[in-house]
Amino acid sequence: MTGRTVLRITGDTPRRRGEDRGRRAAAAIARAWRVYDELFATVAAGSAGISASAGISGAARPLDVRALALRTVDATRAWAPELVEEMEGVAEGAGLPFWTVAALNARTEILAEAGAPRAGECSTLVRTGLRTTGGQCWDWHEELAGAWHLQTVTGDAQGFAGITEHGILAKIGVNEARVGVLFNILGHAEDAATGVPVHLVARQVLGTAGSFAEAVGILTGAPVSASTVITVVTADRAASVELAPAGSAVVEPDERGWLTRTNHFLDPSLAAGELRGRREPETYDRHRLLTRRVLGHPGPLDPEALVKLLAAHRDDGAEVCCHSPAEGTLGSRWATLATVAVDPAERRLLVHDGGPCTAGPSTWTPLTAPAR
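^ that's the sequence the OP posted. Answer follows.
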């Protein structure tokens, strides 16, 4: 089992839940912010250098992280002001400036604005049928391997459990209504830091959605400005909701009941603005490999099957299970930080600290969404 911290967040108002989070994780949030502050600057400088070498003028403008973060706050306040109240509580509880907590929650949008390249990212599998189950690899920067935790949250319309980064309200999880979300970043040509952060959209689903339809409605109605695909899983249904500045699309499972997601759009209209796959076509390699593997898997998608399907490296044709190189600098060292299995019918997650190739029967930590 993982030695990760499990934060048990409570509070009968958004601000109190935020204050509770901030107090419990103050030092960890401050550490995470220091890494992200450096990452934002590193990515912006690197993107400016690449653009300048390509003859693109005006690319060297500084990245005003504070202004970008507060711009996403304005969008969030107009959509779901309670999420802003919760972030204000986190800042107060942790003793940090509010804009830094906002920047953590908008890290995807800020990195999109900076033109961040992605040398790896998440892969997700879901199987529908008599019992829907699924899971994913979560790939991110090796320098942030210590900057995430497990959590249970109560006090909102729905209690939920999951994993998230220090200071970020939510990411991957399942709630007491048996609604779960899995998370893959996408890239669209129009991505920027002007809308509601995708991590806050996931938080809104986990904290308020009482059904599959409600979850999809929240997602398709969110005014986002950076692209992601949030796969909604319930006991008997699943669908991937692709979100982008250009709109949203719901992608249903294939005829065998499988959803296979990496980091490119599957909806044809949104794929017309595809950015990530054009810059890093390895997302297509991972998708092809996983699609072949699930075709040969007739049984249920239990945790053992999940890790076997996801445990693929470069020698297998695609690096689904990602290992950071010994060399490299911040922004270039990607690793699979966690492997997550979800069983919505049981309101349960299993979390393995690391990639699927190191998972075994004794390495999973169970989390169950709290219920009233």
